[in-house]
Amino acid sequence: MRFGLSENIIEEIILILSKYQKIESVIIFGSRAKGNYSNGSDIDLAVKGNSLSFDEFIQIQTEFDQLELLYKIDFIDYTKINEPALKEHIDSVGKFFYKSDKSIHLSI
Questions:
Q1: In the chain, where the domains are located
Q2: Cβ contacts of 1 within 8 Å, gap of 6 or more
Q3: Quick one: which H or E segment has residue 50?
Q4: Is 22 helix (H, G, I), strand (E, B) or coil?
Q5: Which among 17, 41, 62, 89 is most buried, taking Cβ atoms within 10 Å?
């Protein structure tokens, strides 16, 4: 289990992400990236790539919500982060979760 998530959950999330061509990569950050998560910790994901439209962002969030996971997925657009501390946190502890070129889908 990587990031405290089953392979099935990871595959379901990646299946959703792979539908959107504007997404170049997705970084997992927070407690799941640092390894100090608990069973109920949310899944923090930051998307990088060509800016998603508001409608696309909402569609992705809706698809995540339909997964009916035990975890909440917090999905943010890295390009729209205005808080320097959050960007620094993502840059320092974040790990690749998905890359659209298929060369990396998970940090191992």
A1: 5-97
A2: 7
A3: none
A4: coil
A5: 17
67/5 Cα distance (integer angstroms): 14
Amino acid, res. 89: H
Q: How many Cβ atoms are within 10 Å of 16's Cβ, its own excluded?
A: 20
Both tokens of residue 45?
A: 């994901």
Q: Report the predicted TM-score, pTM, of the whole model to 2 decimal places.
A: 0.87
User: Which token pair is 69?
Assistant: 């996971």
As a whole number of Å, the end-to-end CA separation of the chain is 10
The topology (CATH level 3) of 5-97 is: Beta Polymerase; domain 2 (3.30.460)
Instruction: Please give the Cα distance from 28 to 11 (Å, whole number).
Output: 14
